[in-house]
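Lab channel / #folding
Pinned by the channel admin:
"Please post every new chain as: sequence first, then the structure tokens as a reply. Keep commentary short and put observations after the output so the thread stays searchable."

First post following the new format, from NK:
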Amino acid sequence: MHTRYLATAGMLALTLLVGFSACINPREGYAPEQPVKFSHHVHVGKNEIQCTYCHVGVTEGPKATIPGADTCMNCHSLIQGNQGPDKLPDQQRALYKNEISKVRQAWKNGEPIKWVKVHDMPDHVQFSHQPHITAGVGCESCHGNIPKSTMKEGPGVVDRVGLEVPFNMGWCVNCHRQPQYNAPVDCATCHY
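Reply from TO:
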């Protein structure tokens, strides 16, 4: 009888530990430096480019996809001289030209830009953007206000994308429980 009690208590403790760990975020505040100092503030905020133009997979399936140099060059092959960077202060203009030269070089050499993934689910979670977008959940609901998230004013400063929400099971389930989404909360929704 004593052994069964210990086993039950052990399972209860393990269940509580797993449940608690699913509701914390060890990556809180994570905002890695990227290989190209890309500014969502400029592209999305000022130039009003839709998220789905660069992150094309978001409407089609599980992955949002990170754009390659080809996507960048769709616009940047047309932007020349006085269209943009020359109107900036010297320090910002130098930064812009240096960063866009990295993109042009990657494109010219057929090499990928090695972006560092910021928003990442654990391997035991299956997540798809498509049903969320179809349900009308905006990008900012999970990713925060990316164009303004970490933008600081001043010459040569660019924004840096970081985690703005917990991205843990408790946070996701609380959103699914909102009546306007009428989303399932059973385990098999995300763990299959």
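NK: Residues 25-167 form one domain.
TO: also worth noting, The chain has a mean pLDDT of 80.
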